[in-house]
Amino acid sequence: MASPRLSDRLKFAGKFATHGRKIASIAPSSRWLSQAMCRDIDPTRPQVILELGAGTGPVTEVIQQTMHPESRFVSVEVDDELHAIATKRCPNVEIIHGSAGDIDGILDACGIESVECFLSCLPVPSLPREVNRQILDTWSRRCTSETFTQITQIPWYYMSMYKRVFKEVSFSLVAMNCPPAGVYHCRSLRADYASPERLPGK
Fold first, then answer.
1. Long-range contacts of range 24-27, CB-CB < 8 Å, 24 or more positions apart?
2. Which value, to the nearest 10 degrees, does the dihedral of the CA atoms of residues 15, 124, 36, 91 take?
3. How many Å is the Cα radius of gyration of the chain?
4. Please, how many CA atoms are within 13 Å of residue 51, restricted to the half-sphere of its CB?
5. Are strands 181-189 and 166-174 parallel, antiparallel or unpaired?
6. Across 12-16, 139-143, 158-162, least confident range
């Protein structure tokens, strides 16, 4: 009988096989990649933290372990089965079953006005362009740290895409992940970021 974590990985791989690029990767994030996503989470003080795309919960779990005990942490996952897995894995985390395209309304429903750490585990290039616009618009209005943190399973490949949207983009490679992956840290939206020539999506 497969262990719970192995079973989760097999389910995740099955989602990738079925939905392709609508799922961010073929396997859940490693602990090293999850820790790289938590660069701006400060365990010494309370913060408001938002994660988009909990998946099976690997990043969610590390965020919970890293953050200050009085931090407010909300995660969002749209897939029914992945939401159930993440909720079971992280029962003390507020994991909302909903779409990242509705993030403004979700934050309002949670009584959250601003977010300090905004972490995205979404497959940005595969999302509808309008969903990406809504996410970035919400980030620009609500994120006080002005940093958009985005996971990737293909190192550097999408650098030019993020540079079309943001004025400042840096990349942290996580070689220990299998396959090697990394994290983009983006700041300062370009004035015309929402134009079809710049905004990713389909």
1. 24/53, 24/55, 24/121, 24/122, 24/123, 24/151, 24/153, 25/153, 25/181, 26/153, 27/178
2. -50
3. 16
4. 32
5. antiparallel
6. 12-16
Q: What is the pLDDT of residue 18?
A: 43
Give burial (CB, 10 Å; 0-12/13-18/19+) of 159.
middle
Nearest to 193 by CA among 129, 150, 143, 144: 129
One-letter amino acid at 117 equals C
For residue 28, the 8-state DSSP code is P
- State phi, psi for 120 to the nearest 5 degrees: -115, 125
Tokens of 92: 């003390």
Q: How confident is the model at residue 189 (pLDDT cuts 50, 70, 90)?
A: very high
Which residues are registered as beta bridge partners of 76? Answer: 52, 96
Query: C-alpha distances in angstroms, 165 versus 70, 115, 122, 141, 189?
Result: 33, 20, 16, 16, 6
Nearest to 54 by CA among 26, 74, 31: 74
Q: What is the pLDDT of residues 30-41, one digit of tens each?
A: 999 999 999 999
- How far the first Cα of the chain sits from its last, in Å, is 40
